[in-house]
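User: Last request for today: this protein with BJW, please.
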Amino acid sequence: MNSKFVLSANILKDAEFVAVLTGAGVSAESGVPTFRGKDGLWKNFRAEDLASPEAFKKDPKLVWEWYNWRRGIISKAKPNPAHMALVELEKIFKDFYLITQNVDGLHFKAGNKKVVELHGNLWRLKCINKNCYRFDNPIYNYEVPLKKIPPTCECGYLMRPDVVWFGESLPPDAINKAYEIAENCEVMLVVGTSAVVQPAASLPLIVAQNGGKVIEINLEPTYLSSVVNLSILGKAGEILPRILDLLM
Ligand code: BJW
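Assistant: Here's the final one, the structure of the complex with BJW:
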């Protein structure tokens, strides 16, 4: 038995309020590409060419082609053992929140209920016209592929994915809730994120500053590894079920 699994289970066993922060790595074993790293999306595309308001303004069709392609992959993806273990963890602890940077909706599909989506959801579309009802009221749309890109709103303006691009603010409700969770949880599991994108990457540091413990699960060391209480290297879909087994 890997002693790090036992240590993690011991840290978690005594906690009542547990939080999880996930990134693209948690969906990698479902076949969803990550952003950075060997097979990451940014290897083939420049982030600023696709995930920024400037990119959308310059070439909305190109940006929508990218999202159409990703929606196609995600529509076929099934939650993997990491997602399923997180569903079970939600049932164990008195207080539990899952904060995700992912826009794929797979945590909801797996069955987690207390999910905070920091970077939006790529199944939602919102109008770019600030005066339109669909600016503040995005609409779910599961059409794959979207036949007309870029899609237009009833008001005539373009629709965009309801996700957070570089330089944009995170949804206030989501980031405020995430800060509240980070300040109050006893343990945070940080799973499958390179921890380079702010403000999400600061959440584990807030946990540590407030006396909480941080356990990181990742294929490789990250910027956080030297400050966390425990860093476990490996696949989330293998590690999380083993920790869960020790808690059952
Ligand atoms: C496995 C695995 C397996 C693989 N098992 N592990 C302060 C300082 C510096 C800069 C900033 C700052 N504050 C704001 C900024 C600017 C910017 C930023 O952070 N830039 C940095 C890159 C430097 N942040 C913003 O602009 C944010 N807005 C903001 O803060 O507004 C206020 C403000 C604006 C401007 C200035 C100051 C303040 C918005 C950030 C929005 C991020 N958006 C994206 C796209 C979302 C839509 C979409 O998906 O299309 O979000 S970018 C992309 O990165 C996506 C992800 O959610 C995010 C994080 O990536 P993640 O999840 O960590 O994925 P990867 O690929 O990086 O890592 C995967 C990891 O998994 C790896 O470590 C693997 O090893 C691991 N892994 N398989 C376990 N099986």
